Amino acid sequence: MSLSKASRTYVIEFGVAMVAYVVVLFTSVWLLNRDPLSPWRLAIALAPVIPAIFALVAFVRFLGRMDELQRRIQFDAIALSFGATAILTFAYGFLEGVGFPHLSWIWILPLMVMLWGLGAAIASMRYR
Q1: What is the pLDDT of residues 63-94, one digit of tens each?
Q2: To pair with 71 at 20 to 30 A between CA atoms, which of 88, 116, 117, 128?
Q3: What are the backbone angles phi and psi of residue 37, rounded to the nearest 5°?
Q4: According to DSSP H, which parts of the chain are helical?
Q5: CA 27, chain centre distance (Å)
Q6: What is the model's pTM?
């Protein structure tokens, strides 16, 4: 399977951003564990967000280069992800009120990405 020029550009841009994310994340965790009272701890803790922003920019640029069908599939997938994440987090908030353990916000993005992938698979099958 041959990738289009837009896809190749996206894979490179997104891949570089993800490699940077992993490096910055591990460095950030290491620095915070090494000196948890550092005056720079807020900046160090937020540092992984910077390469994540570059990953988002890469995706938005790729979205603009997609053909109409691929863009529609992504729109459907993102809509499913947004709605399902909203319902699931809303429901879990009620469950926390009756004794379920508190979950960190850090789990919302992985949930959204997982549901986005599921939505893309469903939309791709629907448009075949």
Answers
A1: 999 999 999 999 999 999 999 999 999 999 99
A2: 88
A3: -105, 15
A4: 5-34, 41-46, 49-65, 68-96, 108-126
A5: 20
A6: 0.79
